[in-house]
Design goal:
single chain, 3 helices, elongated, 75% helix
């Protein structure tokens, strides 16, 4: 079983990855995002799925 500190450290790392991923997607130009087949408005959903599955 993970210690409380280890669990918090894992959560903090995943949260930081989520925020970084969400911001990168949200900051794409509309043309770049559409070329990738995504909508910038879906940044939070895409980042959440990428980090937490």
């Amino acid at each position: 079983m993970k210690t409380l500190f280890a669990a918090y450290r894992d959560y903090a790392a995943k949260r930081a990855l989520y925020v970084r991923t969400r911001n990168e997607i949200a900051n794409l130009s509309r043309a770049e995002a559409l070329d990738l087949g995504i909508y910038p408005e879906d940044a939070a959903k895409i980042a959440r799925q990428a980090v937490w599955g």
